[in-house]
Amino acid sequence: MPVLAKSGAGRACSVWPGGFSYGGARSLITTLWEVSSGHTTQIMQSFYRNLRNGMPKHLALTLAKRDYVRRVGDVEAHPYYWSSCVAIGSMSPVLSKGAGWRKPIAAGVLLTVILIWGFRRLQPDRSANV
Fold first, then answer.
1. Nearest to residue 48, comparing CAs of 93, 108, 115, 97?
2. Are the C-beta atoms of 43 and 65 separated by less than 8 Å?
3. Which has the closest alpha carbon to 36: 9, 68, 63?
4. CA-based R_g, the chain, Å
5. What is the Cβ-side half-sphere exposure of residue 86, based on CA atoms within 13 angstroms?
6. CA nearest to 88, candidates 40, 37, 26
7. Per-residue pLDDT tens for 75-123?
8. DSSP character for 27?
9. Is residue 63 within 8 Å of residue 50, measured between CB atoms?
């Protein structure tokens, strides 16, 4: 549950998002009030699945909440259980679509290094003939 601090005219505000931002976090998913971890676990599992599919964070969270409401009974579908989860900061996708070329390039470089190393080990030692 977020820590609250006084903010002008007696209003309370959460200080955690600012602390994470100060620490370098570009985005944050948090809850506005305490909710059972069972409910938030279901939402977060769907949220991360959506992120892996390349969705922006706000859309991934929205679809995760909708999926949660469709799957649970009437009581758990009440907004109390799902509307506390909010996204703050950058909503850009976690993985860019252009990042798919990195693994094949890295594998190719690694394979080349292994082949060069292997061929050098198989060649006879020329320094012994001198």
1. 93
2. yes
3. 68
4. 25
5. 12
6. 26
7. 889 999 899 899 988 888 886 555 566 777 888 888 888 888 877 788 7
8. E
9. yes
Alpha helices in 35-101 (DSSP H): 37-52, 57-71, 79-82
Pairing of strands 27-31, 11-14: unpaired
8 Å CB contact between 61 and 29: yes
What are 30-83's pLDDT values in tens digits? 888 888 888 889 999 999 999 999 899 999 999 999 999 999 988 889 999 899
List pLDDT tens digits, range 68-84. 999 998 888 999 989 98
Which residues, in sequence order, are CB contacts of 103 under 8 Å at separation 6+?
Answer: none
